[in-house]
């Protein structure tokens, strides 16, 4: 029997192009949640003086329509402090804190290099971050179990105590869905997609696996110390979500200890950051969405058919590259898939 998390604070570790924005929008409609600024650390990763991203700070500022003055105010320490304050505020309001970020925005460039091997990019100095414990207050004064999983340490720049205080939800989707979607977004940005190293952060589920394994090891150690059964980190497969959202959300809500009947499966178009190049490239469809609906006709992946479509949409070389990259992703994807709802 699966053990319920009975969540009080939830972090969606979202792989790009996995229907993660739709999933987050749907979960956020539940009245128990107070949304804590999603992608709170993305600015620090992209445009701060301690930026860890592969693209240059100037490129990111252009994509986000961000001025030099606004960029100069962003730091890693300030971003994590702000995240902790928002979590504390949600809990003081009697709500469950809910936030989301892509793992590639949370992990130091040295870790990205170690696990992804990004060619032509040097590791940058890792930011020094102090856990100011701004999320600890009268509501939840004891959040540190004093457990550090040595074999699978926290791979992110979030302080260990804070990282492990969350109920994790990891989003995945078949690589044959993720990669071409990522490629289309890069095209809309005007990137050169002919190079075989395109979609660096979108082409590997390794970062999500590192986060999963870290939470799994932490929970197993804590379960032994407390004499109970361990909880398994939650994995949502975007393909399953698209095919039958209500079934997926019923199972998720049972694990979280909340009432699925209070979710709203339709909404007004979100129109998030729609003035930026980044949103127009990556979020245009989501920003026009009005909900998520049961779609039993959503097809299972047929690689031969996918490759034919890629040849038609692009060309033989890009179809071959996509096919190779999908194959390279499958081990980590299938590892996480076995734990999906």
Describe it:
- It comes from Marasmius oreades (fairy-ring Marasmius).
- InterPro entries: P-loop_NTPase (IPR027417).
- This is Sulfotransferase.
- The chain has a 5-stranded parallel sheet with strand order 2-3-1-4-5, with helices on both faces.
- It contains 15 helices and 5 strands.
- The protein has one domain.
- Helix content is 45%, strand content 7%.
- It is α/β, with parallel strands linked by helices.
- Report the order of strands and helices: EHEHHHHEHHEHHEHHHHHH
- Structural class designation: alpha/beta
- Enumerate the strands of the largest sheet in spatial order, edge to edge or round the barrel: 2-3-1-4-5
Detail the poorly predicted runs: none
Measure the end-to-end span. 13 Å
- State the assembly state of the protein chains: single chain
Work out the number of β strands. Answer: 5
Global Rg: 20 Å
Q: What's the rounded overall pLDDT mean?
A: 87
| Largest beta-sheet characterization | 5 strands, parallel
Q: What's the tally of helices?
A: 15
Number of domains: 1
Strand content: 5-15%
- Shape verdict: globular
- What portion of residues is helical? 40-55%
Protein name: Sulfotransferase
InterPro entries: P-loop_NTPase
């Amino acid at each position: 029997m699966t053990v319920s998390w009975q969540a009080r604070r939830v972090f969606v570790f979202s792989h790009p192009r996995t229907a993660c924005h739709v999933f987050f929008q749907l979960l956020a409609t539940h009245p128990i949640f107070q949304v804590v600024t999603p992608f709170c650390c993305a600015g620090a990763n992209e445009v701060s003086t301690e930026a860890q991203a592969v693209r240059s700070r100037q490129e990111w500022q252009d994509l986000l329509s961000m001025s030099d003055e606004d960029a100069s105010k962003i730091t890693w320490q300030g971003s994590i402090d702000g995240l902790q304050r928002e979590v504390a505020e949600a809990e003081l309001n009697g709500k469950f804190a809910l936030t989301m970020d892509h793992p590639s925005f949370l992990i130091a460039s040295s870790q990205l290099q170690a696990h992804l091997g990004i060619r032509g990019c040097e590791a940058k100095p890792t930011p020094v971050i102090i856990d100011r414990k701004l999320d600890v207050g009268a509501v939840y004064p004891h959040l540190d179990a004093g457990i550090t999983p040595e074999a699978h340490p926290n791979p992110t720049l979030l302080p260990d105590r804070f990282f492990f205080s969350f109920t994790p939800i990891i989003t995945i989707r078949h690589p044959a869905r993720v990669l071409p979607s990522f490629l289309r977004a890069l095209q809309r940005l005007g990137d050169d997609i002919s190079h075989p190293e395109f979609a660096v952060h979108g082409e590997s589920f390794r970062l999500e696996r590192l986060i999963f394994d870290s939470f799994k090891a932490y929970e197993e150690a804590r379960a032994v110390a407390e004499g109970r059964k361990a909880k398994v980190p939650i994995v949502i497969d975007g393909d399953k979500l698209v095919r039958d959202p209500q079934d997926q959300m019923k199972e998720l809500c049972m694990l979280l200890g909340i009432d699925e009947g209070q979710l709203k499966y339709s909404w007004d178009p979100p129109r998030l950051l729609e003035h930026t190049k980044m949103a127009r490239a990556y979020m245009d469809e989501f920003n026009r969405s009005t909900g998520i609906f049961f779609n039993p006709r959503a097809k299972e992946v047929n690689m031969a058919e996918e490759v034919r479509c890629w040849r038609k949409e692009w060309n033989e070389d890009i179809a071959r590259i996509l096919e190779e990259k999908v194959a390279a992703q499958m081990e980590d994807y299938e590892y996480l898939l076995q734990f999906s709802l």
